[in-house]
Design a protein that fits this description.
- The longest helix is centred in the middle third of the chain and has 22 residues.
- The chain is of the alpha+beta class.
- The protein contains six helices and seven strands, in the order H-E-E-E-E-E-E-E-H-H-H-H-H.
- It is elongated, with a radius of gyration of 19 Å.
Length: 178
């Protein structure tokens, strides 16, 4: 039996979603990728990829065929290392965004009356985040949500960066609610 036949018959891996916290043998991690199936139930791409909550930043494992039947979803677990690494990466991307935002002038978006004001508020939010004040995550999430402030002021020049930041903010907000 090939891997695709195995996956077609065994549906355990389909109960996981990206962002789920899972545990196995006393270790905890986050599901970062799930397989994609066509209408006939055949896997066409992806993996059941878990990032383990360890000090090692790149501690990823494809769990299809070996651990998928042993993984269990967990509702609440404070991800110490993954969250810290995620904040560090987010700050680096936000600093890149702040630099890009400094190059724009004028416009408006919601209650932000100009690109200059957006830049100043973004700079202040980064400063607060660096001090450990995570209360700015909701405001940042709103600014970087599709078709919101980031897109209004920066547009196509920052599309990929904005999407990456928004994805990171989604993950961190989900963790904060647990």
């Amino acid at each position: 039996m090939g891997m695709f036949d195995f996956l077609k018959r065994n549906k355990k891996h389909r109960e996981f979603m990206i962002g789920d916290i899972v545990t196995y043998d006393g270790e905890y991690g986050v599901v970062r990728e799930v397989p994609i199936f066509n209408e006939k139930g055949v896997m066409i791409s992806g993996a059941l990829l878990v990032q383990w909550d360890t000090e090692k930043e790149g501690d990823y494992e494809n769990c299809i065929g070996n651990l998928e039947y042993h993984l269990k979803k967990v509702e609440n677990y404070p991800l110490r290392y993954i969250q810290r690494i995620s904040i560090i990466k987010l700050i680096a991307d936000l600093e890149e965004a702040e630099q890009l935002a400094s190059e724009f002038r004028g416009g408006y978006s919601g209650d932000i009356l100009s690109a200059e004001e957006f830049h100043a508020r973004l700079k202040e939010a980064i400063k607060l985040l660096k001090t450990g004040n995570h209360s700015v995550l909701d405001e940042l999430w709103y600014w970087f949500a599709p078709t919101c402030a980031w897109d209004d002021f920066i547009g196509q020049d920052g599309l990929e960066l904005g999407n990456r930041i928004f994805e990171q903010l989604n993950f961190l907000r989900k963790q904060a609610k647990k």
